[in-house]
Write the structure tokens for this entry.
Amino acid sequence: MSRTRILDGGMSRELLRLGAELKQPEWSALALINSPDIVREVHKEFIAAGSEVITTNSYALVPFHIGEDRFQKEGAALICLAGRLAREAADSTTDRKVLVAGSLPPIFGSYEPQNFQPERVQGYLEVLVENLAPFVDIWLGETLSLIAEGEAIRQAVAGSGKSFWISFTLADDEADIESSEPKLRSGESVEDAASWAASSGAEAFLFNCSKPEVMREAVETAAETFRKMDAQIEIGVYANAFEGEQGASAANEGLHDTRDDLNDDAYSRFACSWAEAGATIIGGCCGIGAAHIHRLGKTLSR
């Protein structure tokens, strides 16, 4: 088994745990506005838990969450702040090198592939890329629901001189968990997404913000696709802890409950399964906190 790089976990629940006020639709962006020191502290806690890559708190800095007017007036400054806080936390670590991944979210909403607007997407991505660029080591297009969103990220970062990772969210209703053919929330197959990734120049191909139960099949499918294409791309996973069906409402309309059964021990067992299937980058998404990351890092190191 190859050595596994450890990502961080979900930002929002850790912000709440440390006392930040979060509400929809701004959600984690509200912490940048009202309590940036807590954002920095969350980054530091994940690093202390063993994270080797931390992700900027820029996921909600899009009009879908903060509104078009605020994005135009304050978006650049908030994005810059998100990058700076992550960089400060990473650079304050003296015992090892910690990388900063610049989060590039789905511009028109999580789990909303039908809302993708190719004619408008680059204008928003340009603001994110320009203002995160001074602070990040790699780009992370994450929670993408369709291949076209991944292609938009590729185009947006093409001239940056930095490597990029692409992470898709998977369909994970009960029928999808039972299916042997993993697919994106758009309905596109993981095989097709992996084939696209193999020709995109991406350094890593990941799956995130889906239930842990659907991840191993996706990792196996991606690994087999890359093997057939002789493509040298790392595979990664960072699942969420959401309870119930996730695509029933827009991501900025409410707060998903989290599962009682997905403690740090249970999550680390999933992580071992993903590593056995070929994943070499593993962390957590929504509801997966610093305790989960500490446990999975210790477990995988053995």
Observations:
- The two ends are 11 Å apart (CA to CA).
- The longest strand covers residues 138-144.
